[in-house]
Each structure stands twice: as C-alpha cells, then as structure tokens.
Design goal:
Layout (H helix, E strand, L loop, with lengths): L2 H16 L8 H10 L7 H9 L12 H24 L1
C-alpha cells in the first residue's frame, strides 16, 4: 500500500468513527484529521495561512476537506515545478 492509500484509509476510519461530514469540517477538525493522519506539524495557524494564500473555505467558515486536499496537492505540484520553469527561462 502506498503512502496516499494509507492516508486515505486512515481518514476514512477517522470519519466513520466520528461520523463527520468531510464536506463541512471546522478548521479545528481539519487540523485534528491532518495530525492524526501523520502531519504532526499541522497547526491552526498554518491552516489560516493556507486560507490567506487562497485555500478554499465554505461560506460558513467550514472546510470541504476534499477541496482543501486538492488545493494542497495543486500547491505542492506548482512548487515542485517552479525550479524547472525558472531554468527554462
């Protein structure tokens, strides 16, 4: 099982045990999920800095976990590709 599959399995168990709606988590719940799934350095301050950088939030302030993870992956991908683009210029 690769790392992503392992994380998804942990998240699934976490959500089933707590019957949480991953489309509308509080910011505190998002931090809790990420810490429990292995991102030990996650904090509420980091999450808010992601919001400041453009991470998606629902209108009521909750977080769609799927959209947030997609945003994280997009950010990681764009940061990985930046050096290649700078070299091409």
């Amino acid at each position: 099982m690769n790392l992503i599959q392992s994380r998804i399995e942990k998240w699934s168990i976490f959500f089933m045990e707590r019957q949480r709606n991953l489309l509308a988590l509080t910011p505190e719940q998002v931090v809790d999920v990420l810490i429990r799934s292995g991102y030990r350095d996650m904090t509420l301050e980091l999450l808010h800095s992601d919001f400041d950088a453009g991470a998606p939030r629902n209108a009521d302030g909750t977080v769609n976990f799927i959209h947030y993870m997609a945003w994280i992956l997009k950010e990681v991908n764009s940061n990985v590709n930046e050096p290649e683009q700078a070299q091409a210029d």
